Amino acid sequence: MALDERIISRAIIERYFQKLLANIDCDCAIVGAGPAGLVCGYELVKNGLKVTLFDKRLSVGGGMWGGAMMFNEIVVQEEGKLILDEFDIKCSLFEPNYYTTDSIEAITTLISKTVKAGVKIFNGIEIEDVVLKKVDGDYKVGGVVINWTTVNMAHLPVDPIVISSSFTVDATGHDAHLAETLVRKGGVKLNTDSGAVIGEKPMWAQIGEQDTVNHTKEIFSGLYVCGMAANAVSGAHRMGPIFGGMLNSGKKCAQLILEKWSRK
Questions:
Q1: Which domains does the chain have, with CATH numbers?
Q2: Residue 21: C-alpha distances to residues 15, 76, 132, 162 (Å)
Q3: Arithmetic mean of pLDDT over the chain
Q4: The model's pTM
Q5: Where, by residue number, does Fe cation bind (predicted)?
Q6: Does the annotation flag 228 for ligand binding?
């Protein structure tokens, strides 16, 4: 059968925009498709929420692809292994409480199972801004403002569009981009010691792993933070190529949102 280039183009355009239009309004918008954002989305959609996930890169997955210094193995501790077991990702015991896994298997499996669970991922899209509105007398984050990554790279004067959400998650890693944007443009105070994005401290694996989970929280009404963004916002240490804290941070973030959702 002959192929018609016009039908190929129409199929891509129509299907993509059907998908985008269906996700203009969602229960939760997650920004950053690294391990924390993926686990968060997976847990939420399993519990019935409509989840849309954005990442500025074409290849979603964050920093897990490269392992450490492009040695594509990563380490997780016992708590992290429990989540990898849930995703059926193979781990090997190295020493007590230290497990290794192939970073390519880990991140491809996380991505695949998150998508198959029902999370809609849009890659190549950057967040320009957050939506900040007054609801019942208090300000609340109500979504994100998106544009093509290439538009921002080229500094083109092209207006963005808005995605509305009941909950918004900053899983943008070291940059904590949503939290930083909210403070800089909205002049608000976050749920941190200083009210601002404090910035991450130097590496300390043990403390960094613990704090990634401890600092996963709602930092402003409607805005949650997980993964390395949680440490950057609250001024905690980085942890390097051990990923259990990242995985558990994503799960905790989902649990916090689900608790608020159940009360809603």
A1: 5-263 (3.50.50.60)
A2: 10, 38, 21, 11
A3: 96
A4: 0.96
A5: 159, 174
A6: yes
